[in-house]
Amino acid sequence: MFITFEGGEGAGKTTQIRRLAATLAARGHPVLRTREPGGTPHAEAVRGLLLGRGGWDPMSETLLLFAARREHVTRLIGPALAAGIWVLSDRFADSTMVYQGHAQGDDRALIATLSRATLGPVWPSLTLILDIDPAIGVARAVGRGDANRFEAEGLAFHRRIRAAFLEIAAAEPARCVVIDASGDDEAVAAAVLAAVESRAA
Ligand code: Z5A
After folding, report:
1. Which of these, 66, 165, 82, lies nearest to 119 by C-alpha position?
2. Which domain holds residue 35?
């Protein structure tokens, strides 16, 4: 399976992806854990450019994200899936639709077109949207002390992010499951595992 974790800042994506990877590995599944932007050396270099500084022309930013994603899909995700490895990605194309499309106001039709043109058949079979009140999520993320430029945005921005992820989930119920991420690690992990088991069955 190709499973993506999406959601706003501090929702617990990284924590939960690590837990799910450990659970799947313990059950004997070969698992690859990766992230976006990033996942390959070239894509990680693009990540450094994008998260390090703002001021990008919006379309340039979207094109860079898709260049990184194309690298990620062709060099890492696609070959792993072909080899029977479960791929868990911390963010994927929904993040571009949400952050660049909904929140920054970039052309959503263009983003959808770029997804189709650059990703080919590689598309998540399951997307877990970790949903949390942005005030709590941002406080968690900032509490780590390494806030990036998106985390530094105001609460109104993060509310738009949350609403946009929920809109995608409502539009694509066959692919997306919304997980209440406000509980403790154990509770969220149990909900994640239940969603995976129900879709993998
Ligand atoms: N971006 C974009 O604009 N367009 C795109 O196409 C893509 C990305 C792919 C990536 O940043 C940024 O890039 C992202 C969108 C943009 N914006 N931001 N910010 P990132 O990878 O550095 O950050 P992130 O993806 O938003 O994740 P995060 O802030 O690191 O949070 P998280 O992974 O969801 O949470 P976490 O690291 O697991 O946990 C955060 C803290 O909360 C940590 O101290 C945990 O110990 C704690 N935590 C976790 N779970 C819990 C629970 N259940 N209770 C209490 N505390 C918890």
Report:
1. 66
2. 2-200
Q: CA 76: distance to chain centroid?
A: 16
The pTM assigned to this predicted structure is: 0.96
Whose alpha carbon is nearest atom 50 of ligand 1?
12
Residues 6+ apart with CB under 8 A from 125: 1, 2, 3, 175, 199
pLDDT of residue 52: 81
* Radius of gyration of the chain from its Cα atoms, rounded to whole angstroms: 16
The 10s digit of each residue's pLDDT in 134-166 is 999 988 887 776 666 677 788 999 999 999 999
Closest-CA residue to 33 (of 15, 52, 9, 10): 15
Tokens of 73: 């899909």
Please tell me whether residue 142 adopts helix, strand or coil conformation: helix
CATH of the domain at 109: 3.40.50.300
Q: How many domains does the chain have?
A: 1
Ligand 1 contact via 72 beta carbon (within 6 Å) = no
Neighbours of 83 (CB within 10 A): 9
Task: Find the helix or strand (DSSP H, E) in which 20 lies.
Answer: helix 13-26
Q: Is the CB of 145 under 6 A from ligand 1?
A: no
Residue 37 preceded by cis peptide, ω within 30: yes
